[in-house]
Amino acid sequence: MSLFGEFSFFGVLAIVLTVAFILGVFEKKQNWLLLICSIALDVCAIGCDVRSLLFFGGYVVWEIVLSMSYLRIRTEKGRKGKTYALFLILSILPLVFSKVFGAMHVPLFQILGISYLTFKSAQVIIEIYDGVIKELSLSDMAQFLLFFPAVSSGPIDRSRRFTEDLNKEYTRREYLTLCGDGLEQLLIGFLYKFVISSLFFDLLELVQEERSFLYMTAYAWCYGLYMFFDFAGYSRMAVGAGYFFGIKTPHNFNLPFISKDIKEFWDRWHITLSHWFRDFLYSRFVMQSMRHKWFKDRLTTACAGFLVNMLVMGIWHGLTGYYILYGLYHGILLAANEVWQKKSKFYKKHKKEKWYQAVSWAVTIHLVMFGFLIFSGHLIQI
Amino acid sequence: MEDKILDILAEVCEEDEVKDDLSMDLFEEGLLDSLGVAQLLMELEDNLGIVIALTEIEKEDINTPEKIVALAMQRNAEG
User: Fold this and answer.
1) Touching check for B46 and chain A: CB below 8 Å?
2) Cis (ω within 30 of 0) for the bond into A155?
3) Is residue A6 helix, strand or coil?
4) Chain A within 8 Å of B55 (Cβ-Cβ)?
5) Number of independent structural domains in chain B
6) How many other CB atoms are there within 10 angstroms of residue A347's CB atom?
7) What CATH number should be reported for the domain holding residue B22?
8) Which residues contact A99 (CB under 8 A, 6 or more apart)?
9) At what angle do helices A114-130 and A138-146 cross, to 10 degrees?
């Protein structure tokens, strides 16, 4: 059963949310219900394949053991770089296996949600090292990883934010408002994913035959809009379902197509992913490179940071030529944008004028759509 | 200590005005961005031994010079 993907799931979801709602309205604890539902629905999503179930279970236990033991070591021995690196590598290792075996078409380590769960586990390890996470209970960590609305494709929440919501007590009035919002998110998400997105999907079939410039352009736009409504729709439903359990998972999209430059686009598109990369890769890369003076100035450092950041994001999508190219493409765009905004006198003079913003928006959306064309694999298949 | 923190901030922002106008919004003025924040935290740690982790602060916690000074001083006092 695919989560948020097929109608049988919505039947189960309706029952689950009704039970959660009854508990919530009577101001009763929902945590046990959430854990049981998460385990049950994660198992349903994986299906009756014993090997997949064992891999999933093993993976989750592995990440929990890593984070709990690293927290103990960090508390006793302090901030040690080498131990940190070891635990971080161990937590990312299953994902590396998954990507490599996936590219070789070997059915090993193909674990439900591993791409997304790795972000969550790595975030915990990094923040334990930073000293930001000082305590972590077994049940909180399990809840955080197994949380069924976001298990397969995010949004990527942060553990401290998540556990705060998990242990929060809502009054009846607060809870009802939250559920009202949640229901709205579920309905809009449903509309996005199953009505609007399907429409663009049908259009895609119409324009995929010919490879002329016009058809390619139409394909890029249809694919971009299909992707947005499909993914933003799913994300909204995931957020909405979480509200019924008192978990306010952050939103993943915020009107991405109104962006006036590519940096703004990444602040509006797949937000939880790009912010994760900003906080845990870009910023740390930039810090290390300034500390060790790898580059001659700040602008070069920023550009190198963008390239590394987006290249890794591309590789994370899959070890496929066009995903890596997509990452590189956005890395170059972000770097070029940075140089333009920092160096150009023309930009500084005109950036607040209406006509400049209009041109900038039009250029940005075309660059974005071209990016989707690369991502779709329709332009180049390598 | 306060002066040292402001010196670092001025160096990161490449703008001496941040030492005088302590309530200016550094993000709105375009003086601080993701790179600047990373550099600021690194300099505070390397030069003054004040450790502030990137993900424990929100943009609103460090958007003016006075907030940055207050946060850094508080951390310094805590040791």
Assistant:
1) yes
2) yes
3) coil
4) yes
5) 1
6) 15
7) 1.10.1200.10
8) A315, A316, A318, A319
9) 140
Residue recorded with tokens 């797949």: A270
Chain B residue whose CA is closest to A341:
B30
Task: Dig out the tokens for A271 from the structure.
Answer: 């937000």
CA distance to partner chain B, nearest, from residue A126 (Å): 10
Side-chain-side CA neighbours of residue A280 (13 Å):
24
| Residue numbers of the domain that contains B48 | 2-78
By the CB < 8 Å criterion, does B37 face chain A?
yes
Residue of A126, A277, A286 to mutate, testing the B interface (most B Cβ within 10 Å of its Cβ): A286
How many CB atoms neighbour CB B26 within 10 A? Answer: 24
A317 labelled catalytic: yes
Q: Position of tokens 């590394």?
A: A308
Q: How far apart are the first and last CA of chain A?
A: 31
Q: What is the DSSP string of A57-81?
A: HHHHHHHHHHHHHHHHHHHHH---H
d(CA A328, CA A310): 6
Report which DSSP code applies to A279.
Answer: I
Can you say whether the dihedral through the CA atoms of A9, A11, A15, A21 is positive or negative?
positive
Distance CA A295, CA A257 (A): 34
Are A279 and B39 within 8 A, CB to CB? Answer: no
Q: What proportions of chain B, in percent to the nearest 5, are helix, strand and coil? A: 65, 0, 35
Report the C-alpha gap between A329 and A326 in whole angstroms: 5
Q: How would you write the pLDDT of chain A (382 residues) with one tens digit per residue?
A: 899 999 899 999 999 999 999 999 999 999 999 999 999 999 999 998 999 999 999 999 999 999 999 999 999 999 999 999 999 999 999 999 999 999 999 989 999 999 999 999 999 999 999 999 999 999 999 999 999 999 999 999 999 999 999 999 999 999 999 999 999 999 999 999 999 999 999 999 999 888 899 999 999 999 999 999 999 999 999 999 999 999 999 999 999 999 999 999 999 999 999 999 999 999 999 999 999 999 999 999 999 999 999 999 999 999 999 999 999 999 999 999 999 999 999 999 999 999 999 999 999 999 999 999 999 999 887 6
Long-range residue pairs from A271-276, CB within 8 A, at least 24 positions apart, any chain = A271/A155, A272/A154, A272/A155, A272/A156, A272/A157, A273/A119, A273/A154, A273/A156, A273/A313, A274/A313, A276/A119, A276/A123, A276/A156
Complex-level ipTM: 0.90
